[in-house]
Design brief:
Length: about 450
């Protein structure tokens, strides 16, 4: 079979792959972007229900996510603010309380403990070098500790531990017992601090693209020269030597001088390489699992909770959807509530019948917002662990021992094979912003290597 020829092949048309391709095309390179799905956007996916855009994947942008915000502006896409007006709901231990801001008003001891852990994590995070977390002075100690151990040691009350646990699960889509403390500190610094990661106002949950986040990926793809993007083309194998690369899908081959693999490490590890990857790189891809999340959406005729003075944001200790948000458009018609099932719960609930999942999630909504929340006109959810081309979300995370032993293999090119994807980002790792930055960085790496 005669390979299709380009200068650079990009594997994956998520934000990382599309951003890499855009930069390379702007520099005059012929690029082939090979995407397994029949759409672009990857972990960003917008479905439409009777004209209402529903983001089942990544949906928010926020301050300091400069590349993503600039891209939206440049491509002519408007953003709107996340609805935050009104009271948030905390439903713990059978009691419903209202609060404003990011941290709920719990008992004084728990509040103090949350404040202390928050402060401590932010403080320690400042000591982690973003481009080399393994070089932090206490790297080996932090990488041998889980977030769970840290929380048990520093948060003396059950209320504080519960709150922090739900907050962290919402950030990582992973259980504190699975996360290296070093990774958590790296991630906090990468996103600019815990306040930024956890807040809606002035934080990572502040802005949304009008019409859904996938429009941004589509607009980016539309700017690529015709013929650059090939959908429904899963890459299976990469052959690489000192002269170039050949990238193989099921029924076609693509040759070029270099390849950028813009996939999460775990999926990159499932490709066949010839010659095989060095052990350091292969060990890394074996040891960075994807988080697990089910994003659950209920649609109502209007956002009636707003009329009751509620923001639509809630935290409950009723499983499985502990954290909830208003996901309606600004006008509130229709009304949309969103809940997350994360980590071990997402793995468990992925295997349960859909109807059971729906009932359990709606019970969580009803617990926080009243019986009306249990009676939506439509319900939809998406379990990202089931998705063949993501196998989990929001991102790959580092369990204990991985940053310090395998971290160096995360971005280092292997000959003519380069790595992108949000997991390789130093700034806003795990987010759309990180994906864009990683693609641009990998493209620069390729261009530099030619000079
Ligand atoms: C439920 C959910 C909520 C999220 N919320 C937010 C949020 O609010 N804000 C935010 O910034 N981020 C959020 N994220 C994370 C964000 O979506 C990701 O960080 C980002 O989209 C990752 O982009 P990427 O290009 O690195 O990877 P991906 O989007 O995963 O792109 C990889 C691409 O490669 C393709 N692919 C896989 N295997 C192959 C193969 N063998 N051959 C060819 N192609 C292949 C995939 O189909 C995919 O298109 C969320 C994610 C999820 C799932």
């Amino acid at each position: 079979m005669q390979p299709f020829e380009s200068d650079v092949i990009v594997v994956g048309a998520g934000f990382a792959g599309l951003s890499a391709a855009r930069r390379l095309c702007a520099a005059g390179r012929r690029v082939a972007v090979l995407e397994a799905r029949d759409r672009v956007g990857g972990r960003v996916y917008t479905e439409t229900h009777h004209g209402t855009a529903i983001d089942l994947g990544g949906q928010w942008l926020g301050p300091t996510q400069d590349r993503a915000l600039a891209l939206a502006k440049e491509l002519g896409l408007a953003t709107h603010r996340q609805h935050v007006e009104g009271h948030n709901v905390l439903h713990f231990g059978g009691k419903r309380r209202l609060f404003r801001g990011t941290v709920p008003r719990v008992d004084a001891a728990s509040l103090a403990a949350v404040g202390w852990v928050w402060f401590r994590l932010d403080q320690l995070a400042k000591e982690v070098p973003l481009d080399a977390p393994w070089e932090a002075k206490q790297a080996s100690e932090w990488d041998a500790t889980t977030l769970d151990t840290f929380l048990r040691t520093h948060a003396p009350t059950e209320g504080a531990r519960k709150l922090l646990r739900y907050a962290m699960e919402t950030v990582f889509a992973a259980d504190p017992a699975d996360l290296s403390l070093l990774h958590v500190l790296f991630y906090i610094r990468s996103g600019g601090g815990l306040d930024r990661l956890l807040s809606s106002e002035n934080g990572a949950q502040q802005d949304r693209v009008v019409g859904g986040m996938q429009r941004l990926a589509e607009a980016l793809a539309a700017k690529l020269p015709e013929g650059t993007l090939r959908l429904s083309t899963p890459v299976r194998a990469i052959e690489h030597d000192r002269d170039g690369v050949v990238v193989r899908s099921d029924d076609a081959a693509f040759s070029g001088s270099r390849v950028i693999v813009a996939l999460p490490p775990m999926l990159a590890g499932r490709l066949r390489y010839a010659p095989a990857m060095p052990s350091a790189r292969d060990q890394l891809t074996q040891r960075v699992p994807q988080g697990a999340v089910i994003k659950c959406i209920a649609i109502y005729e209007r956002a009636w909770w707003r009329e009751e003075g509620l923001s639509g944001h809630a935290i409950t200790d009723l499983a499985p959807a502990h954290v909830q948000f208003d996901a309606s458009a600004p006008e509130g018609t229709p009304g949309v509530l969103l809940g997350f099932i994360e980590g071990a719960a997402a793995r468990e609930w992925s295997d349960r019948p859909r109807g059971e999942r729906r009932d359990a999630v709606l019970a969580c909504f009803a617990r926080c917002f009243g019986v009306r929340a249990g009676l939506p006109v439509h319900y939809v959810d998406k379990s990202w662990t089931e998705d063949e081309w993501s196998r989990g979300c929001y991102a790959g995370y580092f369990p204990p021992g991985v940053w310090t032993s395998s971290g160096k293999a995360l971005r280092a090119p292997i000959g003519r094979v380069h790595w992108a994807g949000t997991e390789t980002a130093t700034v806003w790792n795990g987010y759309i912003e990180g994906a864009i930055r990683s693609g641009e960085r990998a493209a620069e790496e390729v261009l530099r290597s030619e000079r």
